[in-house]
Amino acid sequence: MARSDVLKNKRKTHRIVIVALIFICIYFVGNVLLSAVLKIKIFQPGVVLSVEKSIEEHKIGIQVGHWKNDELPDELANLRGRSTGAQEYNITEWEVSQKVAQLLKQELEKKNFKVDLLPATVPIDYKADAFISLHADSNNDSSVSGFKFTSSVWDKSGQADRFGADLEKSYLKNSGLGVATFISSEMEYYYAFNYRRFKHTVDPTTPAVIFELGFLSNQKDRRFLLNHPEKAATGLSKGIEHFFDTE
């Protein structure tokens, strides 16, 4: 073979190698970029082992219990009279819940969640990836303390109980409050979940819970909610994160 032919073959081989390297680089760079956006875990070239929904796609509905009760629609007119919910020492339930809800909204938005902050009136057939209604309790016995939750009895997502359990575990750790065991019928059959009777309700395919942050009638609970609403918000935020991290 002539020297010129050998040189031509070498150049051709070099070009093939360079082109192959370029394609390999494009392939791996593309996978890295795709993984960053969609959180795709790739352990072998061309083999996708798991796909996680991007956190940016998750929408959370946070309802402030009793906030703007006077604006409830006609179908819920009987609830308008309960303007503030629980009240102790001129401290109202909706104001306490609203403060925690605002801080929770801020924390979740920093982590790229989309958040709707809602009053007592829920949009018709409201849909989200998760929904939490925040309240604060009261009792004639000031020794009664703790937080509690219950999931929607009309849930069709199959995830509401797990959502509530994640919130409970995280809130317990961050608040230092105990778990109250008594669940009232008003909680269990919360109007915002009752899509069979009302229009302004959460869609049953949305995991939904009603969450009592603590007792305003109890000194320990009240001081915690007034002095450390950020801890209450963090407890809920971490619970929400865990719920989506393990779905």
From TrEMBL:
For this protein, the record's Pfam families field holds: Amidase_3
Among CDD domains, the record links this protein to: MurNAc-LAA (cd02696)
Sorted alphabetically, which keywords does the UniProt record give?
Answer: Hydrolase, Membrane, Transmembrane, Transmembrane helix
Keyword Membrane applies: yes
Could you tell me which residue ranges the MurNAc-LAA domain spans? 120-241
- GO MF terms held by the record: N-acetylmuramoyl-L-alanine amidase activity
GO biological process terms on file:
peptidoglycan catabolic process
Q: Which SMART domains match?
A: Ami_3
Read off the Gene3D superfamilies from this record: Zn-dependent exopeptidases
One GO location term (cellular component): outer membrane-bounded periplasmic space
**TM spans, by residue?**
16-38
**UniProt cross-references to SUPFAM superfamilies, sorted A to Z:** Zn-dependent exopeptidases
Q: Which PANTHER family match?
A: N-ACETYLMURAMOYL-L-ALANINE AMIDASE (PTHR30404), N-ACETYLMURAMOYL-L-ALANINE AMIDASE AMIC (PTHR30404:SF0)
- Protein name (Swiss-Prot/TrEMBL): Cell wall hydrolase/autolysin
In its UniProt entry, the species of origin is given as Berkelbacteria bacterium GW2011_GWA2_38_9
The root-end lineage is: Bacteria, Candidatus Berkelbacteria
